[in-house]
Design brief:
Keywords: Calcium, Hydrolase, Metal-binding, Metalloprotease, Protease, Secreted, Signal, Virulence, Zinc, Zymogen. It is found in: Secreted. With 139 residues, this protein is mainly β. Helices cover 0% and strands 53% of the residues. The protein has one domain: Jelly Rolls. The chain starts with a strand and ends with a strand.
Length: 139
């Protein structure tokens, strides 16, 4: 809608409000708290998820529900060149990771894991100072 009025100087002032449809389909944003296995955010396959790490929030966890055996392809893009990395855990052993980033392609940290059906937890963490954004996608 548009709302207008005339100010004291005789000039028109307008308020314009736009509404529409979000065209950025397939994108999600992390929700805090998600710093533990118990509070991990769900992460669907083939969805780009945006997250932020800072000195107060040094790690984020996401849970991936694998229905059928699948080769998970994990990509984390480091938007601000933070010192960050990722590891993947299986619900059967939350003390030892089953996969980690094995390749760097520019600012992307890549890796894969042949997952059996079950829940997996992706942990994105920073090991340096500063604040920055990242994206994660699992296919």
């Amino acid at each position: 809608f548009v709302n207008y009025r005339v100010n004291n100087a005789g000039q028109y002032e307008y308020d314009v409000v736009f509404s529409g449809v979000n065209t950025e389909e397939g994108t999600a944003v992390e929700k805090e708290p998600n710093n533990s296995f118990e509070t991990a955010n769900p992460l669907s396959l083939n969805i780009l998820l945006k997250g932020t790490l800072s000195d107060q929030d040094q790690g984020d966890k996401f849970v991936i529900d694998v229905k059928d055996q699948k080769d998970l392809q994990i990509s984390v893009t480091n938007e601000q060149n933070l010192g960050l990395n990722w590891v993947l855990y299986s619900e059967s052993d939350l003390n030892n990771y089953v996969a980690y980033a094995t390749k760097r392609d520019g600012n992307k940290l890549l890796g894969n894991y042949n997952a059996k059906p079950g829940k997996y937890y992706l942990s994105v963490y920073k090991y340096g100072g500063g604040t920055g954004n990242y994206t994660v996608q699992v296919k």
